[in-house]
Amino acid sequence: SDIGSQKDRVVTEEEWLQKWETGNIGFHKEQVHPLLQKYLDVLLNGRSGLRIFFPLCGKAVEMKWLADMGHSIVGVEVSEQAVKDFFTEHSLPYIEEPVPEISGAKMFQSTSGNISLYCCSIYDLSSSTVGKFDGVWDRGALVAVNPQDRQRYVSLMITLMEKKSSYLLVTVSYDPNKHKGPPFYVPESEIKSLFG
Questions:
Q1: Which CATH number among 3.40.50.720, 2.40.260.10, 3.40.50.1370, 3.40.50.150 corresponds to the domain 16-195?
Q2: Annotated binding site for S-adenosyl-L-methionine
Q3: Which of 9, 19, 82, 175 makes an SS bond possible with 24, Cβ 3.0 to 4.6 Å?
Q4: Where are the domains of the chain?
Q5: Which pTM value belongs to this model?
Q6: Model confidence over 101-154: pLDDT tens digits?
Q7: Residue numbering of the annotated binding site
């Protein structure tokens, strides 16, 4: 699978933080993603009260949407600004506390307790810290991960999933020789080999 010149491209944590600081967040959507609405039944699979994980969550509006349905939401995001903006924009009171297992990490939790957002690198998380999940909404995470880190990312995600977990993944399709990413092009063949 040819991903063109993208395979060696690296976007640093600092670059992501700068996107949030400068408001260069075209990847953020103000409305619930139509594909999540369309495939919600696949994610839930007839179950209620799920623990749903949002990797590289930003300030995704879907977190509140699913929490309002009675699900527990856990997200991870490197930008503290994005996390605080999420709670502010939804008028959700929250508490902030350190995460003892992860140096420098903070956890922001809605006072209702059903939304917990970790501010740290996703690679600092483990199931011993955040537990396992019944569902994952990956809209913009796999395609944002540096191509050389995909295997590491997917290996982590698999350790965070319960046996009967549902994983909804949104990718983008385009000619990787014409766009340097992110979002990065992830061919279907690679998705199959990564997730098995």
A1: 3.40.50.150
A2: 16-27, 56, 77, 121-122, 139
A3: 19
A4: 16-195
A5: 0.95
A6: 999 999 999 999 999 999 999 999 999 999 999 999 999 999 999 999 999 999
A7: 16-27, 56, 77, 121-122, 139
